[in-house]
């Protein structure tokens, strides 16, 4: 069967899109992950048309994405891999909470081969019980993107805007249009079910297929922590984490990778002792521009949380320290 035919499979993981509040007007006092992904799909008119054919639902997890963990990631990566290899599947949609969506998107982008079929994350800022829930439209739009011929990559669709896994970031804790692609700008938009791309589908990423093997075979993921540079950052936390056996550290540095001198010294000591360190910036836009002579490796343009995931995958592929 050619790519571009077949079914769309929607994998549910929970989130506000599946959230319920006691009162319809309550947009913040709700519990995420209450409504099954099957029920979410049943409530959306026009879904089969957006899917250009069959659509199926599977519940992978039912959680608030603040509680996302490696066990769910392993299951999600495994199921996506199976579906992407199935010639009867045109694309995969994942319903997810907004809070850690960008992390799951980057994780999936790093480990899946989506060169021919997309994985599209859908979410919502208002629970399913809200007076005006945004989930049904977001899910319908995500299905439309997944079913669009030529679609590829790991993408997120929120408030009519399509973002790539590399650039997407939650930038607002309340607004319905809560995501941004920063300097890169959106990949495109969904308008009345039709996809309009700003430039074209993303270049296929090179998946770390070795990572899938390691993920399948480990229950003990490396420990990588994210720290921040700030006024008075004295680095003692680094020494404590090293004593506690941390495997990797990502620092959300100020500006273009600057660090308080005491934190810099502590991170250099950690690095020399074998702990991997990456320097990202805490600025919401832009990236650290490395300079000759930099003592610590930078995050290659990734935000601190995405740099953590890349470092986790690097470390998973290496023999563990005793
Ligand atoms: C979550 O991330 O699961 C809860 C918050 C949200 O989806 O907006």
Describe this structure in words.
This protein is α/β, with parallel strands linked by helices and 322 residues long. The chain has 2 domains: 7-197, Rossmann fold; 222-316, Rossmann fold (3-Layer(aba) Sandwich). Helix content is 29%, strand content 22%. The chain is built from 9 helices and 15 strands. It has helices at residues 37-42, 47-51, 70-84, 101-111, 135-147, 209-217, 236-243, 261-272, 304-316; strands spanning 7-14, 20-21, 30-31, 55-63, 89-95, 119-122, 154-158, 161-164, 169-170, 179-180, 188-191, 194-197, 224-228, 248-253, 276-281. The strands form 4 sheets. Strands 4-1-5-6-7-8-11-12 form an 8-stranded mixed sheet, sandwiched between helices. It has a 3-stranded parallel sheet with strand order 13-14-15, sandwiched between helices. The protein has a two-stranded antiparallel ribbon with strand order 2-3. Helix 7 (236-243) links the parallel strand 13 and strand 14. The longest helix is centred in the N-terminal third of the chain and has 15 residues, at 70-84. It starts with 6 loop residues before the first strand and ends in a 6-residue tail after the last helix. The model has no long low-confidence stretch (mean pLDDT 95). Residues 14-16, 32, 64-66, 97-99, 123, 125 line the site of succinic acid.
Largest beta sheet: what is the strand line-up? Answer: 4-1-5-6-7-8-11-12
What molecules are bound to this protein?
succinic acid
> What count of helical segments does DSSP give?
9
Order of helices and strands: EEEHHEHEHEHEEEEEEHEHEHEH
Radius of gyration: 20 Å
Number of domains: 2
CATH architecture of the largest domain: 3-Layer(aba) Sandwich
The first-level CATH class name of the largest domain: Alpha Beta
């Amino acid at each position: 069967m050619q790519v571009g035919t077949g079914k769309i499979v929607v994998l549910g993981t929970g989130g506000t899109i599946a959230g319920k509040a006691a009162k319809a007007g309550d947009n913040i006092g709700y519990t995420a992950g209450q409504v099954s992904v099957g029920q979410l799909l049943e409530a959306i008119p026009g879904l089969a048309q957006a899917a250009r054919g069959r659509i199926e639902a599977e519940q992978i997890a039912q959680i608030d994405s603040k509680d996302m963990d490696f066990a769910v990631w392993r299951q999600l990566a495994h199921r996506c891999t199976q579906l992407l290899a199935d010639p009867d599947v045109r694309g995969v949609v994942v319903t997810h909470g907004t809070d850690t969506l960008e992390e799951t998107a980057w994780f999936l982008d790093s480990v899946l081969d989506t060169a021919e079929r997309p994985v599209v994350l859908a979410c919502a800022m208002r629970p399913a019980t809200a007076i005006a829930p945004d989930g049904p439209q977001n899910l319908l739009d995500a299905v439309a993107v997944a079913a669009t011929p030529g679609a590829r990559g790991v993408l997120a669709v929120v408030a009519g805007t399509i973002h790539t896994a590399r650039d997407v970031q939650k930038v607002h804790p309340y607004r319905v249009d809560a995501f941004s692609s920063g300097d890169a700008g959106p990949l495109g938009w969904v308008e009345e079910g039709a996809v309009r791309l700003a430039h074209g589908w993303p270049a296929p990423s090179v998946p770390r297929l070795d990572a899938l093997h390691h993920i399948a075979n480990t229950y003990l993921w490396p420990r990588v922590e994210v720290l921040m540079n700030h006024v008075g950052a004295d680095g003692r936390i680094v020494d404590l984490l090293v004593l506690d056996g941390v495997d990797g550290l990502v620092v959300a540095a100020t500006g273009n990778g600057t660090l308080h001198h005491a934190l810099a010294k502590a991170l250099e000591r950690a690095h020399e002792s074998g702990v991997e360190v990456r320097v990202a910036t805490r600025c919401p836009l832009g990236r650290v521009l490395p300079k000759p002579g930099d003592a610590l490796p930078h995050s290659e343009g990734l935000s601190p949380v995405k740099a953590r995931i890349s470092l986790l995958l690097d470390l998973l592929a290496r023999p563990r320290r005793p």
